[in-house]
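Notes from the 1:1 (GR / supervisor)

We went over the backlog. Supervisor wanted to see one worked example end to end before approving the batch request, so GR pasted a single chain during the call. The sequence is below; no edits were made to it. Supervisor asked that the structure be written out right there so they could see what the output format looks like.
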Amino acid sequence: MAARSRLTPEREAELYEAVLDLLREVGYDALTMDAVATRTRSSKATLYRQWGSKPELVARALRHNKRVSLGEIDTGSLRGDFDQILANSDDCQMEKDSALMRGLAHVVHDNPELLQALRELLVEPEMTGLDEVLQRAVRRGEIRADNPALKLVPHMLIGAFIARPLIEDQSVDSAFLRSYVDAVVLPSLGA
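Structure output shown during the call:
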């Protein structure tokens, strides 16, 4: 991939926001590099030169949308870390992001290139950050290192995002996630 130094951070942020807006409007399959170029007043050649492919552009746009890395959060307690994680998202953004991720979850089954880009640029960094938060809690003595739930925390959290709309026909919001963390995640960890 070519160096992306030709774009200012502001222009790059503008491009990423346009990609996310288009994804929300038309979905991944209908999103085209032509549409992104038109929306952002760019050339398609520039988009391919900067990002190489639609899956990489989409994954980088989603990554850019994550303002804080989970691994950077360290309040001194696991409960405090989860509170801070939740404080970094507002309900409106969480609803938009959840809907977007649910849509992409369907697409990745038929698109291995998108799946790979999402894993490398979004999922793995988030899982690494979450693991850092959990390992700090182990080192502080809040969680036993041999607790089998440690490996299942990502599954629990992703399950909350999938299950609530399915079961209750409601969006995931901060209040729901706080109660979920308090009732499910922390007790399973023995914290």
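Supervisor's comment: Residues 127 and 154 are 7 Å apart (CA to CA).
Batch request approved.
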